[in-house]
Amino acid sequence: MQTLLEIIISGITLGAVYCLFSLGLSLVYGTSRVLNFAHGSIYMTAAYGAWLLSDGGLGLNFVVMLAILLPAAFIFGVLFERLVIRPIRAHEHWKTVTMMATLGFAFVLDNFNLVLFGPTAKTVSPIVAGHIELGGVIVTNQTIATLVISLLAVAALQVFLNVAPLGRAMRAVSQDMTGAAIVGIRVNRVFAFSFGLSVMLAALAAVLLSPVYLVSPLGGWSPFLKAFVIVVFGGLGSTQGVLWAAFILGFVEAAVISMIGATWTMPIWFIVLLVVLLVRPKGLMGKWGD
């Protein structure tokens, strides 16, 4: 019973955080059809920012750190779209070129972090210290804070996409880019906003996860690979699919770690992904907005 409770708590927490991180990748693909290979490196750069603002010298608390990091991440995402992605869209083979450009940008960020912060991994102090005991299972307050903040952020994003005019514009662009432009939606504005929102979500995930995982120059590739599997599992560009996929794979990971060890996590993930794609080649939810 205790093992089951551990799997449930861990699965819910992992699912919430993976959803938060993967939604940014899905949003960008859903609106602009750009697969951003730099998503993991951007996440790790934000994690270094969290370290710099806290343990790296400034010693700021969690709220102040978010107040600085999230707006900066949003601006970075908008500038990235306008300066790197938008000029490429005029190219005949822009989808392939943007993938290569984002991959190259990921290497630039990784080496920038390596030069600036060095090869030694950094650690970030927990948002909140202490722990509680739940049914014989010790749960850290950091885990509880991560879960609550992640779920609130995901819920807020869903409300934004379904209620806010700009959120509904993002859904419209994802479904029919040409039709959205005809009815007066500023498609380029939607592209820029989706990139900004994507980077901001990655930064929030970085702040929540940096106290749990080490911050290192190449540490963004493992989260990116997991986000990529989740996005494909749920259906490319489908926000609802990402929600389901993140929690399903979160529970799978928690069960695998508990039963056979963490090294088997990704092999089992890929087996589950292959089974799903054999049954539903487009993933769980088909296309964005379903």
**Major beta sheet summary:** 2 strands, antiparallel
Secondary-structure element order, N to C:
HHHHEEHHHHHHH
Per DSSP, the total helix count is: 11
Q: Are there runs of 5+ residues with pLDDT below 50, and where?
A: none
Distance between the termini: 37 Å
- Helix fraction by DSSP (H/I, runs of at least 4): over 70%
Rg, Å, rounded: 19 Å
- What is the overall silhouette? globular
Taken as a percent bin, the fraction of beta residues is under 5%
User: Which strand order spans the largest sheet, edge to edge or round the barrel?
Assistant: 1-2
Question: Structural class of the secondary structure composition?
Answer: mainly alpha
Protein name: High-affinity branched-chain amino acid transport system permease protein LivH
Transmembrane segments: 6-27, 59-85, 97-117, 144-169, 190-215, 227-249, 256-279
Organism: Sulfitobacter dubius
Family: Belongs to the binding-protein-dependent transport system permease family. LivHM subfamily.
